[in-house]
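INTERNAL AUDIT FORM
Audit reference: QA-55
Scope: verify that the stored structure record matches its stored sequence.
Auditor: D.O.
Record contents follow.
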Amino acid sequence: MDFNPISEDPVKLDNNYPTLIDGFTCDSNNSKLMGTIYVAQGKGPHPTVLLLHGIPGYEQNSDIAHVLLRTGYNVVIFHYRGNWGSEGTYSIGHIFEDIENVIEFLKCRQSVESYRVDSKNIILIGHSLGGFSALMAASNHPEIKLVASIAGFNFGLYGEIISANNNLVKSAIENFEFIKSPVIKGITPTKFVEEIIEHRKKWNILNIIKKLKGHSVLMIGGIRDNISPIEQNFKLIVEALEKERVDFKEVLLDGDHCFSDKRIVLTKEILKWLQVYIRK
């Protein structure tokens, strides 16, 4: 590559197959999801990153999307049901279904032809709830080889920790008061916590580590993260990946939950990981 995609624009432009940024909609269980697709220049087909945001999604990592775009990746950012204008009601269970439906959308003939998607090279990268969801989705898709969790929150383990103590449940409901955000509809903090507790075993990442064998996993944690503390989330998952001999890379950055002051180094780490495995 004859330019630095983190700090420079492409030197050469492909006028026949130019860069494209377009809105799209995708049906998910009779609800319309809203999203944006970033299409890399060139005939392709291009490896396509599904970039999953957290709750409520104020940080959507579009800076990372643009760097990946300049590097030659397609990127998709979409909004879950009941979130940022997408139809339907919000829940973690619905988010899992939404991811499945978007993956199928990316594999369909229309996406392959219109957006130059390499349907055999889809990559999952998520932040916070998106990181958790990326790992969960990858465990059900052996054909998706690359998955990254950035400050992922292990909701299943969290549910197991709080489920035996009513005071912890009450505190959890208070902690999720922010879910009353105007960009989220159809759920309350109480319903959200009840859903986590109900599915705590199934949604504990530690219980599905074996299903990540055959994948290459990137784990990024923030030392100053007080929303997804590394001791309960990052470190336990890394230990489990190592024990099961899953192919993974761990990166600890001196950052907060959104890596607000570490965006460049965060992006560099993602690029380094991708470039190693894309060459394989």
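Auditor finding: record pair retrieved intact. The chain has nine helices and eight strands.
Action required: none
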